[in-house]
Amino acid sequence: MVEVAAVQGSANESLNVGYGYGGILVAFAARHNPLAAVLMSLLVGGILASGGILQRSHNLPDATVLVFQGLVFLVVLYSDSLYGKFPFFKEKPIVMTPPSPPASPGQEPVVVS
User: What sections of the chain are H helices per DSSP?
Assistant: First the structure.
């Protein structure tokens, strides 16, 4: 939206920069949470923006940033598929205590420990 509104001025056929893959990654990693989507979009945008500097300073090929973005996507995808199969991915059980009955007037409440 910022690219179209601020830089281009209007959407046209020459605006083909491939933001779709990054958008899918952000939405999937944020798990459709709006606040997490803002944070993930800043992370993915930072990776894409710093990709040119990293490629020049470390003599990396052009597709390095896309490979890194794909690896982030695969890690998120595999963490969802492994959820519940290993002990450190299992949910902790929730222990609920039943509520105590209300005390009648003139009677002190009984505390059970």
Answer: 2, 19-30, 34-58, 64-82
- pTM of the predicted protein model: 0.54
Ranges of each domain in the chain: 20-74
* 80-95 pLDDT per residue, tens: 777 667 666 666 677 7
> How many angstroms separate the CA atoms of 24 and 37, rounded?
11
Q: Are the C-beta atoms of residues 81 and 71 closer than 8 Å to each other? A: no
**Dist CA 77 CA 73 (whole Å):** 6
Contacts 24+ apart (CB under 8 A), 71-75: 72/25, 72/29, 72/44, 72/47, 73/24, 73/25, 73/28, 73/29
CB 30 within 8 A of CB 37: yes
More confident residue, 111 or 40: 40
